[in-house]
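chain below, 492 aa
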Amino acid sequence: MKQDSSGPDPTAKSTDRRRIAVIGGGISGLAAAHRLVELDDSHDVVLLEASDRLGGVIETFHDEEFLIEAGADNFITVVPWAIDLCRRLGLEDQLLRTNDQFRRASVVSKGRLRQIPEGFLIMAPSKVWPVMKTPILSLSGKLRLAAEYFVPRRHDVDNDESLASFATRRFGREVYERLIQPLVGGIYTADAEQLSLKATLPRFLRMEAEHGSLIRASRRKSAARPHADQSSSGSRYSMFVALRGGLNDLIAAIAKQLPEGTIRLNSPVDRIEQTADGAWSIIISNDKQRPLLVDAVVVATPAHHAARLLATTSAKLSELLKGIHYAGADVLALGFRRDQISHPLNEFGFVVPLVEGRKILSASFSSIKYDGRAPRDHVLVRVFIGGACQEEYLDLPDDELIAIACAELSELIGIQGAPVLSCVRRYRQAMPQYHLGHLELVDSIDAQVAQLSGLELAGNAYRGVGIPHCIHSGEQAAERIAEMAAHQSSAS
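prediction:
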């Protein structure tokens, strides 16, 4: 990793090289910095990260022979941006697919794990018969799900609708509470009653608009792709990949590609201001006497941090950014000997409906999902606690969180004894909540940013929370900055 604590004189703005700052060393900021250099290596790029490490919620570490992802552990491949970046970095041969033998998941139902019906992907059942056989739903719940085929489509599509409202309207309350809510909660750690469907899962809106029924749309899609993997349950596991050595390899590969002096760790930014000549002055908290002067800046921090940084530049933009809410979660990595677990571990994990009244959101069997995550005859389990609907658990001490997780795992998968490894990572205000009206809010934010020449925003707060969308957001911001620079150069 190439870092520099001094660099060129920060108070002097270069006349022949455009200086561009990126604030935030998570995947969005790193993607922005990398893309700026990739587009034009004459750019003088500086990346400012407040902490002592890069990656944000991406963090891989090793404990004995366990490989542990503290935050995100994989990314989806149906959109190209993460895969494309891995290829450009030379990481393509390190991509690791999920174990195709166990591509399924369970849901807690009346205190027991029940497999999510085959072909049921969030709320698009491509196969009706597995749903009709499942013990997760009552007879009335199954009949109501089958009736979705005849539920009329909604016509006032311009008005935003919550994910809970949409799912209940189409499938009924029981299907929503028992299947859809826990699956969505596992993805967004959100309250689905407030979550905007248009901002999070718009494909289901399109399915309704184009086909009139999600069941009809799913079956037509399956018929058109007869050789596609239809055996997954809960999520499209065949479309996810990780890196063999962990996602931190992606972070390290980007950092290695950046020029000497680009990365400045332990550099928290206090505020940014636009000068009279259109440049940007960045005041770094531990060096307020020497503001960093740059031609352009990409703010790739959480929205609430961006709001604080920009408060003196644009009060209106700052207030809009404060309108994006966040939730937190605690991630527990627990290692066990295989003989401590009675469950066959023939799946990737399970999700927990809120109506079950339990204290965890979900559990992922990491070493079943991907090879190389645990030593021989051992298992790595990640347990998620908190989220928007169970915030009361977030501040419990580590030992209480571990006790809660072990108690739940004991009941649900038959764990006996203490874990041989335990690790707690706390993520506060880390997951943006795309509440109703989110896309309209982001449009208003974009309109304010457009009035500030040389400023761009990037990150998971705006138009997608997954790693590929974060990369895309950072790269798009870099491309707009580069286009502006090229335009100004040609004009001069």
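Confidence is low (pLDDT under 50) at residues 4-15. The domain at 117-230 is CATH 1.10.3110.10 (protoporphyrinogen ix oxidase, domain 3).
thats it, cya
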